[in-house]
Specification:
It is a single chain. The chain has about 350 residues and is of the alpha/beta class. The protein has 2 domains: about 190 residues, Isopropylmalate Dehydrogenase, CATH 3.40.718.10; about 130 residues, Isopropylmalate Dehydrogenase (3-Layer(aba) Sandwich), CATH 3.40.718.10. It is about 40% helix and about 20% strand. The protein is built from 11 helices and 12 strands. The longest helix has 19 residues. The protein is globular, with a radius of gyration of 20 Å. About 45% of the residues are buried. The structure holds nicotinamide-adenine-dinucleotide, 3-isopropylmalic acid and magnesium ion. Nicotinamide-adenine-dinucleotide binds next to helix 4. Magnesium ion binds next to helix 8.
Length: about 350
């Protein structure tokens, strides 16, 4: 079966890093019995420019029919104040595909250690499980008048339950520890999260469960990130904490993500944005996109073997110091991507029987 992949390159550095991700996908799948077909669609600002909508109907239909979606990044100053913004397109595709669970890993691999601003001695390897289709991003009522503006934070029991199960199921396959991050000393929604998560935690006796207020959690991510395994949190807190967590690896440009629902295609994207400040210079870090491709291979296509080849090649590349300026190097996006591809090819070559 040929894997059908929708490609949403988006805006500013979006197309630059998507090109890198697709080159790595082509290289890693060559001769590996993984066939795929790409469906490139305008989305975000590009959707507004080409089709008059950040989520053109054709892009949504194509995404719905595909096996997986790769998204790079959208948004930027060009569309500030547009009647419908690129960011609204992003929220709309998440909602339309019911992608309620957003998985954002932070790992400081031995190869990345030298780029980390944190002086940690223990290994750092945790995931943020962020609720993605509710909370203050979507709550009603929402309005702006000449006197005030209003956003609403709302969560239902069912929305909390389903994301909590994702987090605990994930913990069972990891170090069996879940931390709920909330603001239960102030917010009613957080109090509801605490009640429901505590109930569901009793179904997972093997998993240790604790809680942290979001202000303290943001400190702990810097001070002692090794204590975390699975961080479970609501939409807005997850957005903020995941950028902070990314930076302890050395750069926001290294972290991928997966967004999934109960069924249907999952979506894979870097956690960062379109980086207008560096777009067009060919210096965007491709790791976040390349690792998003690896997550797709594991979770949508059951090809953890190919994903491992990618992550080993990324580690070998950063180890060798071929890195973009965000990590303190002077490599271009293309140079870094080529280095990753060369490491994939070399590792295969070394497994081949002797040439005679
Ligand atoms: N999922 C998405 O598509 C997404 C996510 C976040 C922000 N955005 C949008 O992106 C636009 C820019 O937002 P912002 O500037 O606040 O955040 P940003 O994440 O685009 O950039 C923040 C900083 O990180 C740097 N950075 C990000 N990715 C990088 C990479 N791969 N390599 C090197 N450096 C990288 C940027 O240069 C910038 O200095 C906004 O329109 C925002 O709404 C989109
Ligand atoms: C662009 C924006 C709507 C988006 C979010 O807040 O979810 C982004 O920051 C992210 O982290 O994916
Ligand atoms: Mg964000």
């Amino acid at each position: 079966m040929t894997a059908q992949i929708t490609v949403l390159a988006g805006d500013y550095i979006g197309p630059e890093i998507m090109a890198a991700g697709l080159k790595v996908l082509a290289a890693v799948s060559e001769g590996q019995n993984f066939d795929y077909q790409l469906h490139e669609m305008p989305f975000g600002g590009a959707g507004i420019d080409q089709a008059g909508d950040p989520l053109p109907a054709e892009a949504l239909q194509t995404a719905q029919k595909s096996d997986a979606i790769l998204l790079a990044a959208i948004g930027g100053p060009k569309w500030d104040g547009a009647p419908k913004t690129p960011e609204q397109g992003l929220l709309a595709i998440r909602k339309a595909l019911n992608l309620f669970a957003n998985i954002r890993p932070t790992e400081i691999s031995p190869a990345m250690q030298k780029y980390s601003p944190i002086k940690n001695t223990e290994p750092v390897d945790f995931v943020i499980v962020r609720e993605l289709t509710s909370g203050i991003y979507f709550g009603q009522p929402r309005e702006t008048t000449s006197e005030y503006a209003l956003d609403t934070m709302r969560y239902t029991n069912q929305e909390i339950e389903r994301i909590t199960r994702v987090a605990f199921d994930m913990a069972m396959k990891r170090r069996k520890h879940v931390t709920l991050v909330d603001k239960a000393n102030v917010l009613d929604t957080s109090k509801l999260w605490r009640k429901i998560v505590a109930q569901i935690a009793t179904e997972y006796p093997a998993v240790t469960y604790d809680t942290s207020y979001v202000d303290a959690a943001s400190m702990k991510i810097i001070a002692s990130p090794s204590q975390f395994d699975v961080i479970l949190t609501e939409n807005l807190f997850g957005d903020i904490l995941s950028d902070e967590a990314a930076q302890i690896t050395g750069s926001l440009g290294t972290i991928p993500s997966m967004s999934r629902g109960s069924n249907g295609p999952s979506l894979y994207e870097p956690i960062h944005g379109s980086a207008p400040d560096i777009a067009g210079q060919g210096i965007a870090n491709p790791i976040s996109m390349v690792k998003s491709v690896a997550m797709m291979l594991t979770h949508s296509f059951d090809r953890a073997d190919l994903a491992k080849q990618i992550s080993d090649a990324v580690d070998a590349t950063v180890e060798s110091g071929v890195v973009t300026p965000d990590l303190g190097g002077n490599a271009t996006t293309d140079e870094m991507t080529s280095a990753i591809i060369n490491h994939i090819k070399e590792s295969r070559h070394s497994y081949e029987p002797d040439h005679v």
